[in-house]
């Protein structure tokens, strides 16, 4: 059996892979053949999308063809089966194809075409075809009878006839065939009538009048004769069948239902059932289940008084109607043309109106009606009825008599509680009464005289109002509570208590939004035992109370003198802050853990009534585009920040509350923020928006300020512009009152007493002015002005260097910046300006240096560190301007005053770019008695070229000297020009003037020239790591050079070179040569860590540049290593997992190596190898050999967990690398597995205890080429619930679940989602197939049995689910059965959610309902079930219902449908 199933599955898989999306099949049919055909894979494998299949059927020339569909399901909208004869389509079908659907050709050929679109696919169809000699297709269009006869009627039919008449109705209407008369040869000739595929009559000999109904809407009349004697044949009529019947009711229950129930009924249906009973009896009809289109399809219940009921939509199970006064009842059902439903099923019986009636009713919170029998028609004499009403524990029952009309003397309604009569009614109207317990009895008795309508009452259960105190957890989210029944009238005589509790350190704010209570009723707010507020009266709105601690108690008490609407209140918590304390808040996890995505956090902060709140951000970083911190003062946003939050960023509330909200999107997250909170008495937020001064004063200025002030003025500029504060005058007491000024978080001044005018600059763009006073002596306070600060300053230089920089340096300077620094020195001095670090936007942001001559230098982009400018007089001006489109770090510079007559010493770094040096003040005349020196330094391996362009000095006495290696090599003192070259990279140039005549001095050009790479460099390589760089690295390398380095290691070792950084011009390159073979050629930046290895002990590095441009070059390290993979590695393998890896893993493996690993297990075991991770180059490969057979070859990317298993006890792994490149290599694991894994099936007996099964060796990866089979069997009559808990199945492997021949589940090439199903029988088979060529896979499953339930594919249509029930006639209450263990699996296709609403019912004793989202338990329900909605997040819902054998509970109901995502 197991082998057959395996071969079936294998062939189906193979067939599915070989099926083309377009196919054509020719089928030949002989005279007596009956053949079948189907869509590929039917019924186990769904047909393909975008498919087209065609079958051409040919019969002998004198025959016709009958095609009959055995079963079928296609996508209703789009996938179709067409039956074509010649050019005419004689049938087209989609959706569910009704078994028996048939068509007869009129010729000997027929075509069947099936086409599908690119979306949903189903099982497809199966059909049979056979030959016929006569007959036709007949569409039955109405209920007018039409005649049908055999060929030749009323004369004899022919021999060897094989005729079929195919009758099909409109919209699946039922068909009635009336056989009127006829005769056939009695032995072998016969008529047979089919309802779809089912034979409903077979007649021969003399045929009498008979009516036959085809309920499926398909009737096939077959007539066959042999080659012997013939008769007249038959005559019949056909028409649309009438829906309904006439029946006589008995005391045995009889059933009626809409056509096709529980499948959908047809459009335009009209059905009528006429029911009669014995003369002194009535008819009772009870609806078992029902659902119609609620707008338009109706059920009418009619007796001799007229219509007594009309139903539409969902019909409550157990709903009953009784004929009024006689033995007649009529039921009608009609549907329109625009939609349908499952219809209904009902039972009817005859009842005796004089017998006693007893009802048991479970009373829920939903009101329901009860009434005397036959209400509103007259009740019968001598009735004795009783209603036993039961509610849930701790509930009471409210009864409202809407109508009570009985004979006043004698027909009495009584209400009984605790065995005592509470009151009686005999003729009265409306009355309401409420019980004190959960159980009530109502009795109704009539005598033998006058009768009336009886009574109608509503019953409902309710919890006693405010029976228990309500505990409420309070957080920052606003919640609400109300008086009972608000905004309706609250009840008399109740005391309601709410206990509100927030987190420690928080306070509770409760706001009564609307209050209307009677004079003697009141609301009381208690903190501890102390009453803080008491409210009574009407039309009171918005009264707030804030607790001191984290708990409040609300009491609402009413008397019995009167009621009103009550109240509605809101609550939330706040973070209370107090004077002289600082409280910190931060985003969760700050600064160690980034905040969550899609998060929203809120802090409500409250200070005492007369104080304000200052929030100051200590630090912060959020996603600049999308994650924001918002500060709200009441409803006004006073600050919103994102990206980098500058430390010191602050805002001040104007009231005593503040709200901080932080929200993030679903992408990047950062560390978040931290802020501190403190109280203030005054101050405000001031945005500084221009450069005009505005005034600011302390409160009361120029009069005295108040005691105990703590004021903050927060200044913040546009685009982080700097802010200037000018204190004009100030007077505070010198002891404890003071002003403090902050630049961001940094205090830059603290002042007290009498202060004169002083200016302060906030370079961060955030200035906080703090003013504090104590409770003693006061002063006048202060007056100040503020404005956007001018960028720059005026300064007098001294011989001590002074620093200047762009705003926020080294952070980015703002856009649209204009800065100016004016520097002055003493009259006989000069100013020297030296740039330390500079980087501006090189296209558009400029630095200008202007001295007294009016000439200026302009700089942009990166500026060499140490660049110096000297003024020609005692003034120097520095300008910086930025545009609006980008910025940079800016610059930092120092300036100082210098004496032109004192020694002057300059140090110049000389590179290949020519630069000028000149005597001081050139081209103006130099000063007397100067002694200047220029120290010129070039890179190693470079020489210095010096060219004098201008020389104007006093010939006798003012001298220029050039010195190298401490020796004077050149002296100049005349008007001349010349060029000179050094032999080394260090030159000193001196210039001296005497006290007599002076001149313009000199102008010279200096540059270096690299003297490198004149010959190859030989380097001995050992195990110590050394550096190798391009010339001048990290400076730009020279043009047009060729450098060669020969690296040589000892014999038996190889050279390893790693390129750490490479940055070359496009036409320049580095080559690494291994025995004259190019193994690496780099001409562009590559990733750090690029490694190359020699195949022997030598490598040659070649570096070549052209004339077109230069760059930084390269930095590499080199060392030697021993050569590897010289011989195979033998590894003994056992059940313990071991590991091996490519050489140097996870570093780049060497080139041109062949490594071999022999993995050897014990006899009777197999070797399992799994490649865990890695990458190799395209031309390198890993080969796995099982004996001489290659079972795996990997090149380039390694798929994680790729697994292979040997067929014996050995595996060989070969890793071969070429010369073209290297990569990170691989890591693999191995272990030994027993050969006998899954060599026989596993039979498992399933019971109520959960068991488990898994792939071999789970959770390790199972071996290749195995097929495992589990047969799960439970007790007959029970079912099996199985759950695939976890697993991952590769593309060539599969897990399949079968019930008989029907495949229920298949997983292949995917991670298995948690999936549950329930079988329809007591046996399930699970197959696990592992190919030789798959990768890793494993899975685990659980199982147990059940005695009821179903798998439900959830759609858009809302449907209902209930446990198996007991229907008790006379009762509207439906009870569930005992001893149930039911599981329903609800699943939806795609990523849609399942919406599941549980409502109604009362689960007693130890019974329960459990609801699972996937395998996660959401809730367990017992006792009274309230309406509650659940939404799935997993692939299915699982509902488990259990009942024992003690008592009947009231059945719950549940509704489910798809709730679509997006």
Task: Give me the secondary-structure topology.
Layout: H1 2-18, E1 22-28, E2 34-38, E3 52-58, E4 64-73, E5 80-85, E6 88-93, E7 96-97, E8 102-104, E9 109-115, E10 124-132, E11 134-140, E12 146-149, E13 162-169, E14 175-183, E15 190-195, E16 198-203, E17 206-207, E18 210-214, E19 218-224, E20 233-240, E21 246-248, E22 254-257, E23 270-276, E24 282-291, E25 298-303, E26 306-311, E27 314-315, E28 320-322, E29 328-334, E30 343-351, E31 357-362, E32 368-371, E33 384-390, E34 396-405, E35 412-417, E36 420-425, E37 427-428, E38 431-434, E39 439-445, E40 454-462, E41 470-473, E42 479-482, E43 495-501, E44 506-516, E45 522-527, E46 530-535, E47 543-546, E48 551-557, E49 566-576, E50 583-586, E51 600-606, E52 612-621, E53 628-633, E54 636-641, E55 644-645, E56 650-652, E57 657-663, E58 672-680, E59 682-688, E60 694-697, E61 710-717, E62 723-731, E63 738-743, E64 746-751, E65 754-755, E66 758-762, E67 766-772, E68 781-788, E69 794-796, E70 802-805, E71 818-824, E72 830-839, E73 846-851, E74 856-859, E75 862-863, E76 867-870, E77 875-881, E78 890-898, E79 904-909, ...
Parallel strand pairs: 1-3, 11-13, 21-23, 31-33, 41-43, 49-51, 59-61, 69-71, 79-81, 88-90, 97-99, 106-108, 116-120
Antiparallel strand pairs: 2-10, 3-9, 4-7, 4-8, 4-10, 5-6, 5-9, 12-20, 13-19, 14-17, 14-18, 14-20, 15-16, 15-19, 22-30, 23-29, 24-27, 24-28, 24-30, 25-26, 25-29, 32-40, 33-39, 34-37, 34-38, 34-40, 35-36, 35-39, 42-49, 43-48, 44-47, 44-49, 45-46, 45-48, 50-58, 51-57, 52-55, 52-56, 52-58, 53-54, ...
